[in-house]
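Hi X.,

You mentioned you wanted examples for the new student's onboarding notes, showing what a folding record looks like when two proteins sit in one file. Here is a clean example. The first protein comes first, with its sequence line followed by its structure tokens.
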Amino acid sequence: MIVHFKISQTMKRDIRKIRVYLDTSVISALFDEKSPEMMYWTQEFCKSKKDFNIFISDVVLTEIQETPDSQLRRNMSKEIEGMNVLEIDEKAEWLSNEYVRYGAIPGKYRRDAFHIGIATIHQIEVLLSWNYRHIVRRKTREIVRMVNALNGYAILDIMSPPEILRGEET
């Protein structure tokens, strides 16, 4: 017996969409006039947001709420309206601690590890960030791949907006 499935055009589009997690640095870069290149690339990414399934987390919400500049906080809050919000759970927290333990992220910057852990646990394909100091760097990418492989998690591509727009592999 042959069973035929009819797939709608909407489903076809969604099947091909890459799941992308935005950390707070991407959202804040939309409004950072001191960094015009970052602002430009972030705006370009936002023009193509419809081509991706976009996610943030409760960590991003917390970081936005803690932003001291009230106008920036309002702008970022408006920008994230309607985005899918992922929660940190025990698995993500444990995995984040593993990233710190193996040296991917300094312990002092544990929230950066939370972004990576949340994205990994929720099977996100790409974590997008402008944080070159702790996240978008070779050492972090390699250790995250190792820790994820050791624990049975998929590869998480860590990229900056220009990398995803150019279709670069990490």
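Then the second protein repeats the pattern, sequence line and then tokens:
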Amino acid sequence: MAKMGCRLGLLWLEVMSSNVVKRPVSIAVVDYDMGNLHSVCKGLENAGATPKITDSPDEILAADGVVLPGVGAFDPAIEHLRSRHLIGPLQEAIGSGKPFLGICLGLQILFDRSEEGKEPGLGVIPGVVRRFKSEPGLTIPHMGWNQLQFNQPDIPLWQHLSPQPWAYFVHSYYVDPIDENVRAATVTHGRQTVTAAIARDNLMAVQFHPEKSSTAGLQMLANFVNLNL
């Protein structure tokens, strides 16, 4: 454990050497009982932000930026957001122009609907969440390290990254946007190349877990924090 802690510390020194936050940045990390939020918060803290885990609409709307993490199933996520009266405030936060980052399930619920369930999504990005098709020898869920292919190589989230960085995935479903121009990156699993990230104006969302994606993921979180300066 000591070696792992030293290794993570060195990774953060490497990332932060080119990412100096000039003022405190408040980031609302949305709590709707769908995943462990603390690893995301730690990444944001190490990038110089002041994250706050919250389910308060007022705090979400007052923050400099918003992170919507999540793991689990589509329908329970929507139900939890609805029970906390967060659907409208999240849509408002995205519409306000402040930086907004969805992670894993936090990407999928931005879409119209999912083949996984019956609940409507937030409808911010037109499209459907689909399940990977079965292939001989293909493991579902798609779990582990895989390389990104950038469709929008110049967006701020990808600054200071190699052209095809590795990221850590755990998912059985992927987003299928109607507008292909919102795709920021793809990933190939078996013979299927699917959306790994989307970006449109102030909205960014990724299917992988940046907080588990070593140096590249830490860099992405630092890039997001710097957007809020």
